[in-house]
Amino acid sequence: MCLLFIGLCLIIIGQGIRILTIGLAYIVRGGRNRRVYADKLITDGFFAHCRNPLYIGNILIVSGFLFISGNVSGIIIGSVSFFAIYRLIVYSEEAFLESKFGQDYRDFCANVPRWIPNLEGIGKTIANYEFDWPAVAVKEYGTLFTSLIIPLGLISWKLHLANKVNDYQFLLSSIAVFILIAYGIVRFLKKTERLKSMR
Description:
The protein has 7 helices and 2 strands. By secondary structure, it is mainly α. It has 2 domains: 1-130, Four Helix Bundle (Hemerythrin (Met), subunit A) (Up-down Bundle); 132-199. A two-stranded antiparallel ribbon has the order 1-2. Helix 3 packs antiparallel against helix 4 (103-111).
């Protein structure tokens, strides 16, 4: 039960960081033609407090999945492996960003931590932005769906192993249906570009 609680907290915190990041100042960065790409250097929003908040969110979410699974060795190996993978990704991105943005990026690195967010002034940061919920829906609905459906599946499986899944079958099914309907609605709105008109 303790591992389950820790796992759910990690997922909530990780997803919360991702939502806050996207809702304040989304970064257009990623791969293009199998190479690191960034059209401009984003230093505001949550990026003023952490250089890699989306990656932090991903690491926390996956670690949460591992905690919910309840396998201690899996938690240790999986969390360390996932962090190591992201460290390699960040290393290549940092080299690219420094070569592209030069002193601006070096100043950014000097003032903003790579991993552990500096939350000093976060209230002011949030107050200075109009939170962009449609952007969160467009960019984050897939990750949010995953953050909900995987824990639900893991919890259902653990209840099945304990021969207790029938006691919670209606609740689990209702939650799954709600998640799927919400996902379908957001996906439909995105495909029809109706979310853009809400921005």
